[in-house]
Structures are given as structure tokens and as C-alpha cells.
Amino acid sequence: MTMRLTRYTDYGLRVLLYLGMKREGLATVPEIAARYGISENHLTKIVHELGRLGHIRTVRGRNGGLALGREPADINLGTLVRQLESDMSLVECFETGNTCPITSDCRLQKVLGQALAAFLAVLDGVTLADLLARPAGMMQVLGLEPAPPVP
Q1: Alpha carbon of 36 to those of 17, 57, 64, 90: distances in Å?
Q2: Which of 113, 48, 131 is CA-nearest to residue 84?
Q3: Which residues pair with 60 in a beta bridge?
Q4: What integer pLDDT is reported at residue 139 of this predicted model?
Q5: Does residue 119 or residue 91 have the better pLDDT?
Q6: 7-141 architecture in CATH?
Q7: Domain boundaries defined on the chain
Q8: How far apart are the first and last CA of the chain?
Q9: Is 59 helix (H, G, I), strand (E, B) or coil?
Q10: Dihedral angle at the C-alpha atoms of 123, 10, 139, 52, nearest 10 degrees?
Q11: Mean of the pLDDT values across residues 13-19?
């Protein structure tokens, strides 16, 4: 079993990180897709969802683009993962319509439920601002100019 976030959530996190690092001006889907080497079409769907959720704002038109829709400190990773992940069922017994014959006597569901709760609890303690605390390295890799140090 591999516990893994979907690419959808991974790319959603990357979009928010990018927009958080590019605080001045707007970014575009083609720009972000090129910096990360991912599909524009796939990214467009994710950006739409992030906008619907209020995490980003979109500006239409010739000089349009994307920016964060709220402050980085107000974007909680646990909440975001719950919003973007369509299925957090680690095993069949987490699902509606479970047909596993040992569910009533198996302790695995409880243990995996605790593990999932611990995983989400860690994410609940982190915001986008925490991930952006020292962005200079990420900014350099993505071709963004790091902000000058504050005196």
C-alpha cells in the first residue's frame, strides 16, 4: 500500500507555493506549467478549483492572471488536502459498501484511521506561510527573483 497524495493535490500545492513566492504581479497558467514542467490543461482544472475554493483569485483579460486569494497564513494545508483529495480511504473498510469479510473483527481499520488522523493533524498545524518562511532557494530554482532582505 502506498499512502500518497494525488498529483492533483500536489500540483495544487505547487500553484499556491508559486503564487506565494510571486507576491508582486500576476502569474499565468502557462508560466506556472512551464516552471514546473507540467501540463497546462491539467493545471487549468486545478486553478479553477483553487479559485472556486477562494485560495486564488483570477483576473481575466489581456493582462490577467492569478494571485493568492487570501493571505498565506490563512491557507491551512490540512484543510486544503481535505478539499482537494477526492478519496482518503486507505483501505476498503474505510469505504461505504465495504465487503471485507473480516471488518467486524479486524483491528487494522482502527490503526489506519489513527495513522490518517495523525497525518492530517500534522498538516493541520501548517500553513502556506510556514512553507514560504525561507523561499529564496525555491524562488531561484523556479526563476523568480528572491525579495531583497528587509533591513
Answers
A1: 11, 20, 20, 28
A2: 48
A3: none
A4: 87
A5: 119
A6: Orthogonal Bundle (1.10)
A7: 7-141
A8: 49
A9: strand
A10: -90
A11: 97
Q: Are 50 and 11 in contact (CB under 8 A)?
A: no
Q: In this structure, which amino acid lies at residue 26?
A: L
Q: Residue 14 has which C-alpha cell?
A: 505547487
| Residues 6 or more apart whose Cβ sits within 8 Å of residue 144 | 18, 21, 22
Question: Of 147, 128, 133, 14, nearest to 72 (Cα)?
Answer: 128
Measured distance CA(107)–CA(130) in Å, rounded: 36
Does residue 150 have a pLDDT over 60? no
- The 3-state secondary structure of 81-104, one letter per residue: HHHHCCCCCCCHHHCCCCCCCCHH
String of b and e for 121-130 (b: at least 16 CB within 10 Å)? eebeeebbee
At residue 146, the pLDDT reads 64
Q: Report residue 148 as a C-alpha cell.
A: 531583497
Of the given ranges (23-27, 40-44, 74-78, 123-127), which has the lowest mean pLDDT?
A: 23-27
